[in-house]
Amino acid sequence: MTDGSATRVVLAKLGLDGHDRGLKVVARILRDAGMEVVYLGLRQSPEGVASVVEQEDADVVGISMHNASHMTLAPLMVTALRDLGLATPVVVGGIIPHHDVVTLREAGVAAVLGPGASAVEVVETVRGAAADGGS
Amino acid sequence: MSEGQSRDEARRAWEEAYGAAPLREGPFETMSGVPVDPVYGDPPFPGAYPYTRGVYPSMYRSRLWTMRMFAGFGTADDTNRRFKELLRAGGTGLSTAFDMPTLMGRDSDDRLSRGEVGRAGVAVDTLVDIEDLFEGIDQGAVSTSMTINGPAAIVFAMYIAAAEKRGVPRADLAGTIQNDILKEYQAQKEYIFPPRPSVRLITDMMAFTTAEMPRWHPVSISGYHIREAGSTAAQELAFTLANGFAYVEAAIAAGLDVDAFARRLSFFFNCHIDFFEEIGKLRAARRIWARWMRERYGAKDERSLLCRFHTQTAGVSLTATQPEINIARVAVQALAAALAGTQSLHTDSYDEALALPTDKAVRIALRTQQIVAHETGAANVADPLGGSAYVEWMTDEMERQAEEVFEHLLELGDGSILEGTYEGIDNGYFVGEIADSAYRFEREVNAGRRIIVGVNAFTDGNEDKVDDTLRIDPAVEEYQLRRLANVRSERDAAAVEDALDALSVAATDPVRNLMPPLIEAVRAHATEGEIVSALEAVFGTYVERVVV
């Protein structure tokens, strides 16, 4: 992406939670901002998402969590990427209590987007993560 | 007003019905002491076809809506303790929330269940969990509501088996199971099998309860999740009622008499923040359901025509910034639900955009609807907004928009709503319409065309953080894994295998009712996940066509 090509983002829901309204809206927001979105949808495993990130050479991974499983699954997402030798930044969105944000950041999550984040915040956060992140 | 009935006759019929109804104590007067009538305006009156103004002639003068707060707790033991507290406090209805793995038909030790066991409800893997959940509770004396869809038949079988093991016959069991699979493909996404075999499981449960369990409500047709996923009010109304028609068509096709089962269907709607639109939507729901049931599906029994519904305030309307102001949003939504004549109501907690709610937030939510019920006077008069030019117009408009959707589905299904619904699921119609509406709304908020207080306007105070949110104990997951391992090691493995084989054989025969072999399988302590796998081998697994 540093060579001027569009930012590539992989979006997925991990685990069993079916709340996909937010992630679908984010997919359209990022697409409207000129990014390339690979939307994996529901019921993905961290390992499966990581292998797509590798194949697609993605700049950012976005996952969306609404069922209080973020403390387990978000760190597993980071680990799955690192296990493949990928430094791809992970952005987490959804219902994330304030007191969990620091722990998630310590676990290697690049950024957390809470409910009510505006389209501008979403785009800037993903761009920022892509600019800072690994590759 | 029924056909051929004059205004006076309609009035007399209503007076007679009202006179026969038991009444609460009242006083039915304003806080200043002005006595008020039970209903005002012109026919048709509440309790009379087409029921726009309410399903009962006396509405809340006989009985207030049921204040049913839905909540989940980690383990079967925790939930059992909470049930007993509720019963001691005079409650008679129990509401069960299951965790995500249970809702998705996965065992607690399944890889995909990591991090979700016991999180947003109780974990159920085997009959042992249901037995512990209802330990010391007379299942014949309570009414139980179970919110589960994809694997509903399995958990229902466990509930029956647990009761019978303790000597409570299935005919004595009362309650409701949500069991509305069509909206899962459209909105909530908690599906397992493809639509047709899933609907077969539902018609099996409708046939089974019609024959053997007269006090059980086998389906609660739910628009709530459709709305939360982003639909408009009219889409929620139309898709929900169409799903109801689809189940009616499926049950009739399975040989059931419409008047034998229709009265046990109930509904579950959202109440969002646009006050008059919501009231119009809910009034229209009653009118449309009554007309279609009578005119299209030939229902004769009056009880088959009644659209009785539970309402929940709109979780999606809650903001994470300045969360305390959500209490005001919930109050407005609760008032709308009451003015629209709901039969029961769950009010959301103000902190739900941040985390699972704390006990205090849940109590405030309950108090909010108690204020509506006991302080505002809203419960004194049935359909108090009926006759308002605006509300009547809005009701007509909601109905008109819903009828357009029904026409589209009938076209897709060659005259069948059921087939049109299958087609709309296959071709992405429902998810596409819902995603379009959600995105349109989001863009309007982002562009500032729509004001959301504390989000895109009036943001002073947004920096205040709420630190008192519920924290989840990770020990729950380990505890449940040990329980499941114990059951697996102690049960008779050959009996489990035989019961699962018998279930698979029954599943291949579309005229066999699957409830009896399901009850046998859970008695042998087959796990929920094993039963799902056995059925998936016959039915297949649903894979969503992704529409973004």
Major beta sheet, strand line-up of chain A: 2-1-3-4-5
What is the number of strand segments of chain A?
5
What share of the residues of chain B lie within helices? 40-55%
Under CATH at level 1, the class of chain A stands as Alpha Beta
The end-to-end distance of chain B, rounded to whole angstroms, is 46 Å
- Radius of gyration of chain B from the CA trace? 23 Å
What summary fits the major beta sheet of chain B?
A: 5 strands, parallel
Mean pLDDT across the residues of chain B is 94
How helix-rich are the residues of chain A, as a percent range?
40-55%
How would you describe this protein?
The complex is a heterodimer of chains A (135) and B (548). Chain A has helices at residues 21-32, 46-56, 70-83, 98-106, 119-132; strands at 8-14, 36-44, 60-65, 90-94, 111-113. Chain A has 135 residues and is an alpha/beta fold. Chain A has a 5-stranded parallel beta sheet, sandwiched between helices. Chain B is α/β, with parallel strands linked by helices and 548 residues long. In chain B, the strands form 2 sheets. In chain B, strands 1-9-8-7-6 form a 5-stranded parallel beta sheet. In chain B, strands 2-3-4-5 form a 4-stranded parallel beta sheet. In chain B, α9 (233-253) runs parallel beside α11 (275-295), α12 (326-339) packs across α13 (359-374) and α18 packs parallel to α20 (528-539). Chain B starts with 6 loop residues before the first helix and ends in a 9-residue tail after the last helix. Classes of the chains: A alpha/beta (135), B alpha/beta (548). The interface between A and B is large, with 34 and 48 residues.
